[in-house]
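Weekly puzzle thread! Below is a chain. First person to post its structure in token form gets bragging rights.
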Amino acid sequence: MFVGSSVRRRFAWPLRALLAATLAVVAASYPAAPARAATQYQFITVHSGMCVEVGWGGLNDGDLVNQYPCHGGANQKWFLENQPDGFQIRAVHTGKCLEAGRRHLVVKLAYQEQCTGTPFQRWLLIEVGEWPTNRFTFRNVHHSGECLGIYNNSQSEWAVAALLPCSHTAPNQHLTSPEIGYFPG
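Winning reply:
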């Protein structure tokens, strides 16, 4: 009995090593599953039909967010990144976060900023309107009673986005997105 277990131990290590090497070669021969691409969202303001964008395709912290006719550019596309208490909204062309209310004191303008996880950069997506709808607004986590909207209800190109007192009847705060579709009833 002692001889048999000694033999098994002596040959077990090389067999395990051979098996591990074989599995590694087989695994390396299969292509890795492609990474799932994150959905890019385009947010369209209901009151003007224009897209929310980082103005002029800006690349810097503090560059303002505004509305402009939709053209499909990367500065008009956004990623939604889940957070424990909402979303971070990231500009596709820079990876920077939509932030509002920290830099500007009188009018809480929206701008892009390096993502830090601050509550100024976290948003709740709130459905507005009666079902079926694909209208929503973004309410800021830090400024709990304020939502993203186009300042002064402007329908002009380049009109800036800002935090405004939330109103479910204010179309300048209502957004739609072809990528989100309709909310379930």
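Puzzle host: Confirmed. Bonus trivia for everyone else. The CA atoms of residues 54 and 65 lie 4 Å apart.
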